[in-house]
Amino acid sequence: MQPNQIVPITILLFFAFGSNLPLGYFREASRKFSLRWFILIHISIPFIILLRSTLGFSWYWIPLTLGGAVMGQFLGGQIRRKIIK
Predict the structure, then answer these.
(1) What is the model's pTM?
(2) What pLDDT is attached to residue 15?
(3) d(CA 24, CA 71)
(4) CB atoms < 10 A from the CB of 44, how many?
């Protein structure tokens, strides 16, 4: 990775994580495997792909953005469970 790519990749990873925090929070209140649950898991994917393409990153970065999205979903669900208890 080149030094001029540090800020764009950071933006991409924070977007993948941050956009999935509220989605994971709302997903936790949905019935598992329902249409709403499915949409809340997958709705951020096209936006992450668009941002990745716009910033000029290749397919190589998909595992990192996917990891950020999964961590956002997980942490959002954990926050919902802590608040509800």
Answers:
(1) 0.91
(2) 98
(3) 9
(4) 20
